[in-house]
Specification:
Two copies of one chain form a homodimer. The N and C termini of chain A lie far apart (68 Å). Chain A is globular, with a radius of gyration of 23 Å. Chain A folds into two domains: 148 residues, no CATH class; 348 residues, Neurolysin, domain 3 (Orthogonal Bundle), CATH 1.10.1370. Helices cover 67% and strands 3% of the residues of chain A. The first copy, chain A, has 499 residues and is mostly helical. In chain A, helix 6 packs antiparallel against helix 7, helix 13 crosses helix 15 and helix 16 packs antiparallel against helix 17. Chain A has 22 helices and three strands. At the A-B interface, helix 1, helix 2 and strand 1 of A face helix 1, helix 2 and strand 1 of B.
């Protein structure tokens, strides 16, 4: 007879393989010598296919079926049911795609990503187009295998944000879009009127390192259970319980990019460090979704890091590290500089207000492409049109337009909305935390963010993937995901800023 | 029908798992956060047992039997035969020990090593004794399973040095010992008479790092195919082809320890980088033995690094990095300082002349214990007696005596001789290289060691494990392993030094 213990044993084994893969991935992006790349790809591929074989074995399938049988399932605790449900979802998703199709997808997405790199450098959409066309048709084929009710897009976004659909996203974002477009216009004019503050200068990497370690300490990052390294494209990865790794970069002309990037990854890392030990190596020891994950990174980067209360405490420490360059820049000027609202071309450089417009554009284009309302041939024109419409600017090149993100080239359609959901969730969580912790911002002014960290840990980190994202949000905040908290937050923050 | 391609496929797969284990091991000793240790042990254990299961499967056993059948074996090339023979040896060794016994060995050796750490700190042999007694009796039991002709010791040393036996070791070392004991007495007196030169000072880690990178570059270490990191106990590991990692430490009171340690690991790394690409992922893509491995590290550390020709080129560069401390120390004084002959208690701090006496002592004690001529109870007394007899000094404590090395505590009996064999092999190789490359030392004076590196690569690195160590040495030098080359080398070097 199958018991929940059997499932736990299986997941423990799978976690060990996943841990080896995570370490290989981390190493590849931090310390691996160049010539190690080919071998690494082979070794990663070998362990990954072993993982996949085990995860999709009939044995696992039968185990899950047994646990899903009404009698057995009915006897499980709530958390055990979550474990079975999550395992079931993962198994069905992994089995859904015929191996031959999955193979074509892997080969083509790897190739397409490489071509994208060159195409972007050369600003050559034509070079990218035929490969992306082919990849997109494979992705469409995959949606039929995954299955969906209304919109093939649902089959894709569900992978990153369980339970999310295109319809729900639209319900969330349309009011947001209509609110943001005029707000951006207004704020960027006011931002311009109040004068630009440039942070450019020379900030030696070793001093930035000192600063970033300092901010991580203040934010409660536990160095006995994690570390930070340098990399070209910062990321966070979990090698296993007690071993969470974040990364950053040191741009010597502007430390603020690395500083807020570090806070961002810190938030991801805090989430990974916070799962309940009781559920280690089970299916629920992990994030509820990518949107929830992003909400935690944005909590640390924006709600804490870019806030006046925190900077009131922390900016003097920054000044101590770069006294010459920063002595003439007041707290208020720094606060404004790192919260400048300005329509811009590049998503990853966008401010809190304009950021979601970048995402909405991508979502609308993805939804149109997946539903055959937009051809790959017409994508650049559609892209440029939307930038003009929503942000009032038009990309001078595809390199700074439709070719700027890696996601599509690697077949990740349906991923972008999680970034936006993260901004909405974090504002909704933060509003609730403010209610629960009346002295929150006062304490933050003294550099004490522990009450907020404790609150996040208890309410969001510990449950891990026990709840689906929507359930978790409702449980924590009392309401379903709603963009109004985000709108309230930016309205309050930025009208204060330009008062 | 089984073909050599089947064996290659199997070894390719095993190499991928081994690569994951190597990366985990490297990471554990360099960057892993403390609290990641428990999970790492689990993940390592999981992949290791998967590796072991595959390596000892009946499928592999049958494949090797088939390939060993006279008809098939007869049709193989020389290198293919070497592949089969090596696979056969590894398979038989892995299968030799009953799983229950192997499990007891693993558990006890892990425990014993932990206890040794504390026992050494507390200088408490009594604490260590009962555990080591038990471990030794397991090791003796294992020798019966491995099988041997004359001496159970042969079953152990063969694991590290294929084809080596206690009898061969004795034939090599007795003349060596009889030569070394009076030589050490003579040289250490002369060394003392010529005055001590202390290198103590303050050498900042970042400058040492610069120096070590410089020496690695001069020695031809390829940073596109390898890297160096900091660790407590320096080591070299191969993650895979094109990914060889060495490590070092920066002791701020004395850079010479790290400098020569870096050269030592560089030699190990050069060997690992030098195997013939043609045999990648096969059983012969690896070291011929630990003794041969050590011969390469000693080649770079001693025959190059501590030589007058190389230091003539390199010492001015060291002086440039530490000008204040080193301006008054001449090349000759530095050369003497890093070649001081002095009987000392600690093996890892010993000079080239006394070093082998430390090893001979360990070998004699191991041989006596394994053959029941020495009880664990009497080991410290026997140890101290031998130090008095061979080196003229007596350890004031067991911590600096019998408890100094980790090897016995982790069940590694039969390992020590490989260190000594490495010194003999390297001298024998170097003598041959001098013959083949008449300008070798002249070029070294100009910092050009490429001719020697090319020679080592072609003669020793490329063949990898195609030959057994003894065969390789005879092939390269024309003679069987012999201690006379080492005796000639130290006699010439040190009589020049004290002339």
């Amino acid at each position: 007879m199958t018991t929940i213990e059997d499932l736990k044993t299986t997941y423990r084994d799978l976690t060990m393989l996943m841990s080896a893969l995570a370490l290989m991935g981390w190493d590849q992006r931090t310390y691996m010598p160049d010539e190690g790349a080919n071998h690494r790809a082979e070794a990663f591929g070998f362990i990954h296919s072993d993982f996949f074989k085990r995860a999709t074995s009939d044995e696992v399938g039968n185990m899950i079926s047994d646990l899903k049988s009404p009698e057995t399932y009915g006897s499980l605790s709530f958390v055990e049911k979550s474990m079975v449900d999550k395992a079931d979802r993962e198994y069905r998703r992994a089995k859904a795609i015929p191996p031959e199709l999955m193979h074509r997808y892997s080969v083509l997405s790897t190739k397409c990503e490489k071509i994208w790199e060159t195409a972007r450098k050369r600003d050559d959409y034509e070079m990218f187009k035929p490969h992306f066309k082919e990849l997109l048709s494979i992705v469409k084929e995959m949606t039929r295998h995954y299955g969906y009710e209304d919109n093939p897009y649902d089959a894709l976004v569900d992978n990153y944000e369980p339970g999310m659909t295109a319809a729900k996203i639209k319900a969330i974002i349309y009011p947001l879009r209509d609110h943001l477009v005029p707000l951006v216009e207004d704020l960027s004019r006011r931002s311009k009127d109040s004068g630009e503050i440039s942070m450019n200068g020379h900030y030696p990497a070793n001093l930035q390192k000192k600063l970033f370690l300092n901010v991580l300490e203040v934010m409660g990052f536990d160095f006995s259970r994690g570390r930070i390294d340098e990399t070209a494209h910062p990321f966070t990865t979990s090698i296993g319980p007690g071993d969470i790794r974040i990364s950053t970069k040191y741009l010597e002309h502007d430390f603020t990019i690395g500083l807020f990037g570090t806070m961002h990854e810190c938030g991801h890392g805090m989430y990974e460090m916070g799962y309940d030990d009781e559920h280690v190596y089970t299916p629920v020891y992990g994030p509820a979704s990518l949107g929830i994950h992003e909400s935690q990174s944005l909590m640390f980067e924006n709600h804490i890091g870019r806030s006046l209360p925190f900077l009131t405490y922390f900016y003097p420490k920054i000044q101590e590290i770069f006294p010459r360059r920063l002595s003439d820049i007041s707290l208020h000027d720094f606060y404004r500089a790192v919260n400048t609202v300005r329509p811009s071309l590049i998503r990853i450089d966008a401010d809190e207000v304009t950021y979601n417009l970048h995402i909405i554009i991508r979502f609308e284009l993805e939804d149109a492409m997946i539903n055959d309302r937009l051809e790959v041939d017409d994508l650049p024109a559609a892209w440029n049109e939307k930038y003009k419409q929503y942000l009032g600017i038009e990309p001078p090149s595809d390199a700074d337009g439709v070719l700027q993100d890696v996601h599509w080239s690697s077949g990740m359609i349906g991923y972008f909305p999680t970034y936006m959901l993260g901004t909405l969730y974090s504002a909704q969580f933060y509003a609730k935390a403010m209610e629960d912790l009346p002295n929150l911002e006062e304490k933050m002014t003294d550099g004490d963010i522990q009450p907020l960290v404790d609150w996040l840990r208890e309410k969001i980190h510990k449950p891990g993937a026990i709840y689906k994202p929507e359930e978790l949000i409702e449980r924590v905040t009392g309401s379903k995901p709603d963009s109004k908290y985000f709108i309230d937050y930016i309205t309050r923050k930025f009208s204060d800023l330009y008062r």
